[in-house]
Each structure stands twice: as structure tokens, then as C-alpha cells.
């Protein structure tokens, strides 16, 4: 990992927890203790089960968060991008990370270690309140996803995954701005690489999507949404 000097004051990520609270006078001393670095594509920067080293904030790039499931298989539980927080699961309640995290492209990360983060939570009530709301929202999302996935068939889960990454990363030139292998799509959708390949081939024949190499573009988003509407797509 390469050291990087990401400056909070000039950061454009208005959704970042740190950026949103940078105007508070008691945040300035904590910002000076931040550690920034560049993580290369495919490099792991959080190891599941390793001692917690604080929270990470994505300054620029893309990250996948994984958790080991049945038979040791990694399940992708979250994708993150500019301004998002990584490593919050288990922070404050566990001494070890409950997830692992990899860079999906060269990514600039900002890290605040355990001591600094705990000091912020103790001494900056506005930050602590917003963090509490963030945890509540993430818990609600997780519960809704569990209920939704339990009632979806394989095709619906793949469509739901494609719609999610489209919402998260957008499209350029009719292609989603994220390179994912069919295995990674399967690891997020909770199915197999072979099933993902079959569903994608079917969606292409129906002209709902297009592919260029690994890249996928959504061509008929409303039709795809309508297929999973009964599962309360949002």
C-alpha cells in the first residue's frame, strides 16, 4: 500500500462522515490524525478475523466487502465507492473485523484508528448521533435484503444485483462503471457462476442488457425493475 495525502478540506465527497462534520471546531484536531493510502486493484486491506484497526473511508475508488459463508466460500455483502464507510461492522462491539475488504480498482482510503474514532464518538455528539442513524439504516437494509432474497428465484436475484450495481455506480456509454466477473456477481447474488452466466445470456437474448467483455450495460431498466417489483424494489 502506498502512502497518500488525501486532504479533507478539499474533498468532494459530501456524503463522507468526516466531510459532513468537518465544519465542527472539535473535529479539526482529529482530522490531523488521519492516515491515507492508495490500495492497488485486487489488494485486500481488511482481513476477516484480524484485529480491528479503526474505520476506513473511501476517498476515491471502489471496494467490495466480503464475509466467509458455508464451506469457506466468500460472499460479497456490500459494494462501496467514493465517500462510503468500510469496516464498521463489529466496530465498537468486537475486537476483530467481521468482514474482509478488497479494492476493485486503485483506491484511495482514509483511515482513523480505534483510539481516534472512539475519541470522536465520545467528544463529538453530532458525529455520534449521525453514526447511530447510519447503523440503524444499515441494519434495516440488511433485514430487508434477507427477506427479499429469501423469496427471489435465481433470475430475480441476478436482476436485483445488476440493478443495485447500476444504482451504485451508474453507466457510461451504456455500460455499468464497474468491472465484475461472473463469479463476483454470483457471490453477491447468492448463486453460482454457471447460473449467473445462463441468466445473463437469457437477459441478452431478451435485449434487457448488453455485454462488452466482462462489462454489462442495462438497456431496459424499467422492464427489469418490473420483474422484481413484487419484492418491493427500491
TrEMBL record:
<dbReference type="InterPro" id="IPR036388">
    <property type="entry name" value="WH-like_DNA-bd_sf"/>
</dbReference>
<keyword id="KW-0804">Transcription</keyword>
<feature type="domain" description="Cyclic nucleotide-binding">
    <location>
        <begin position="37"/>
        <end position="87"/>
    </location>
</feature>
<dbReference type="InterPro" id="IPR000595">
    <property type="entry name" value="cNMP-bd_dom"/>
</dbReference>
<protein>
    <submittedName>
        <fullName>CRP-like cAMP-binding protein</fullName>
    </submittedName>
</protein>
<dbReference type="InterPro" id="IPR050397">
    <property type="entry name" value="Env_Response_Regulators"/>
</dbReference>
<dbReference type="InterPro" id="IPR012318">
    <property type="entry name" value="HTH_CRP"/>
</dbReference>
<feature type="domain" description="HTH crp-type">
    <location>
        <begin position="152"/>
        <end position="225"/>
    </location>
</feature>
<dbReference type="Pfam" id="PF13545">
    <property type="entry name" value="HTH_Crp_2"/>
</dbReference>
<keyword id="KW-0238">DNA-binding</keyword>
<dbReference type="InterPro" id="IPR036390">
    <property type="entry name" value="WH_DNA-bd_sf"/>
</dbReference>
<dbReference type="InterPro" id="IPR014710">
    <property type="entry name" value="RmlC-like_jellyroll"/>
</dbReference>
<keyword id="KW-0805">Transcription regulation</keyword>
<dbReference type="Pfam" id="PF00027">
    <property type="entry name" value="cNMP_binding"/>
</dbReference>
<dbReference type="InterPro" id="IPR018490">
    <property type="entry name" value="cNMP-bd_dom_sf"/>
</dbReference>
Amino acid at each position: 500500500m502506498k502512502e497518500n495525502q488525501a486532504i479533507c478540506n478539499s474533498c468532494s465527497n459530501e456524503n463522507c462522515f468526516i466531510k459532513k462534520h468537518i465544519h465542527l471546531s472539535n473535529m479539526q484536531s482529529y482530522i490531523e490524525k488521519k492516515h491515507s493510502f492508495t490500495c492497488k486493484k485486487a489488494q485486500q486491506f481488511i482481513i476477516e478475523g484480524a484485529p480491528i484497526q479503526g474505520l476506513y473511508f473511501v476517498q476515491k475508488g471502489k471496494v467490495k466487502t466480503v464475509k466467509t459463508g458455508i464451506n469457506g466460500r466468500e460472499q460479497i455483502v456490500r459494494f462501496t465507492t467514493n465517500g462510503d464507510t468500510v469496516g464498521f461492522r463489529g466496530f465498537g462491539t468486537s475486537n476483530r473485523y467481521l468482514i474482509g475488504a478488497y479494492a476493485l480498482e486503485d483506491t484511495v482510503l482514509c483511515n482513523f484508528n480505534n483510539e481516534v474514532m472512539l475519541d470522536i464518538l465520545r467528544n463529538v455528539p453530532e458525529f455520534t448521533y449521525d453514526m447511530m442513524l447510519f447503523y440503524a439504516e444499515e441494519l434495516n437494509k440488511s433485514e430487508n435484503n434477507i427477506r427479499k432474497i429469501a423469496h427471489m428465484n435465481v433470475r430475480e436475484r441476478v436482476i436485483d444485483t445488476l440493478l443495485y450495481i447500476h444504482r451504485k455506480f451508474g453507466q457510461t456509454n451504456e455500460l455499468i462503471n464497474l468491472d465484475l466477473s461472473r463469479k463476483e456477481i454470483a457471490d453477491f447474488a447468492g448463486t453460482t457462476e454457471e447460473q449467473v452466466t445462463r441468466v445473463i445470456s437469457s437477459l441478452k437474448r431478451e435485449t434487457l442488457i448488453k455485454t462488452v467483455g466482462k462489462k454489462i450495460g442495462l438497456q431496459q431498466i424499467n422492464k427489469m425493475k418490473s420483474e422484481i417489483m413484487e419484492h418491493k424494489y427500491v
